[in-house]
Amino acid sequence: MRIVIAEDDPLLREGLALLLRAEELDVVATAGTPGEFLVAVDEHAPDVAIVDVRMPPTHTDEGIVAAVEARRRRPGLAVLVLSAYVEQAFATELFSVGAAGLGYLLKERVGRVEEFLAALRRVADGGSVIDPEVVAQLLARNRRPDTALAELSPREREVLGLMAEGLGNTAIAERLFVTDGAVHKHIRSIFAKLQLPPDDRADRRVTAVLRYLDGDQR
């Protein structure tokens, strides 16, 4: 796994590099600006990029913009975005262009090394990860009605909430003390109620989660 790190805080940047190298992961480059990051992506052809949301010069959305551009230049590049705060617009913007190989974590998650490494590996394998705290805060903020979401049963909403935390069917079944088959049935019902037919261009699980978080009135 070849990794590029884009983080303007030198202490965090080097700390991440040391952590990953200690796990025998190949950190091929680190960058402190979006421009340096994109140069590193072009030069080193990494498998995964770890990118801070807020980077120079304005410390607003440069990291997100650079991550989207990096995936345009290198299709299939996995990206794990780190943010100090829950920022709904950035989370939905990131996942709106496709969910495979994308993750959004709060920086505090880095201190929970096993969870952070598990999220990194999941993204590198083509999965998607949304920080549980991001999910919780977005749900607390979101009060807009959604007609289709209103049709979900309490259990289906519970399953969808666990999907938003990045749990797979087996983990959801264990959390709810039900069978894998029951979880699969609930998810099929969720997709049907949200009118999400199979589509090779999109991950229905993440589309459903974003619909849930964003309160989209489609």
Question: Can you offer a commentary on this structure?
Answer:
The protein has 218 residues and is an alpha/beta fold. It has two domains: 2-136, 3-Layer(aba) Sandwich (Rossmann fold), CATH 3.40.50.2300; 143-214, Orthogonal Bundle (Arc Repressor Mutant, subunit A). Helices cover 52% and strands 14% of the residues. It is built from eleven helices and six strands. It has helices at residues 10-22, 34-44, 62-73, 88-95, 113-124, 132-141, 147-150, 154-164, 169-176, 180-193, 204-214; strands spanning 2-6, 26-31, 48-52, 78-83, 102-106, 128-130. Strands 2-1-3-4-5-6 form a six-stranded parallel β-sheet, sandwiched between helices. Helix 3 (62-73) links the parallel strand 3 (48-52) and strand 4 (78-83). The termini are far apart. The model has no long low-confidence stretch (mean pLDDT 83).
Output the CATH homologous superfamily of the largest domain. Response regulator
Largest β-sheet summary: 6 strands, parallel
* Count of structural domains: 2
The number of distinct helices, counting runs of at least 4 residues, comes to 11
Looking at the structure, the CATH topology of the largest domain is Rossmann fold
Q: Using the 3D structure, state the CATH architecture of the largest domain.
A: 3-Layer(aba) Sandwich
The structure class reads alpha/beta
Q: Low-confidence stretches at least 5 residues in length (pLDDT < 50)? A: none
CATH class of the largest domain: Alpha Beta
Termini, distance in Å? 39 Å
* Rg over C-alpha atoms, rounded to the nearest angstrom: 18 Å
Assembly state here?
A: single chain
Strand content: 5-15%
Number of strands: 6
